[in-house]
Write the structure tokens for this entry.
Amino acid sequence: MGISTNHATFDGLGFKLFLDNLAAVAADKPLAVDPCNDRRLLAARSPPLVAFPHPELLKLNTPVGQDSNPPVFEATQEDLAFNIFSLTSADIAHLKEKAKATDGVHTNTRISGFNVVTAHIWRCKALSCDTGKNMERLSTILYAVDIRPRLNPPLPASYSANGVLTAYARASCKELSEGPFARVVEMVYEGAKRMTDEYARSVIDWGELYKGFPHGEFLVSSWWKLGFAEVAYPWGRPKYSCPVVYHRKDIILLFPDINQGCGSNSGVNVLVALPSKEMENFQTLLS
């Protein structure tokens, strides 16, 4: 079963609610969740108040009459190599232990699976481009943060529209290459921690004023913990659930590594599309 959707309709969590309700309707049962679609909950303030700098966002300077909603990341015409890298539970545990070796970094970082995997991918992706030639180049990673519980008051858990905003972390290639891994994980954690109620409202108001979109070197899009494979349709649960491959080198996708036979989400698959030479460098760095 394939479904095409749009973030203007709902985000990953909203999509999971949609699939749960689809499964309930297919089984002639009441809706699993009564969805909340009140878009006014995330309306811009009047007047808008941008209280923070937002380097993760890019203003649009669109001439009158032209499309004011270009895609965030365009499909490239380059020849790309595609690969799926599997990180096992043991790999993730190793990254967590590596992140605990702070080497003088004083941090209260939450060392989660997502944070360590994203930090590792960020380092590999940034360094695969230049291979040491431009170590002062700044690399910016983007990733989604669910703002439902971060707002004041929080959004309802059943909020089924788009309730994510783009967090970011930024560092030079030299810092990513030579600095302790714990610091890279800390930067990823800080990017998400930055997304408070005040910051989120500032982002929303910024969008009202400038009609822009996220801006960075690449985006990590995670389907890892969304639970699409756990939806109980009348004919059973999916044997597997994953995104369709995009011809885009600026989006890296995470999705569950579901072991056949036991259905455990012990690891994660990393879908990467890069020019062949960059892919070779990425693979060497990832291993």
Notes: The CA atoms of residues 22 and 31 lie 8 Å apart. The mean pLDDT is 88. Residues 113-130 form the longest helix (18 residues).
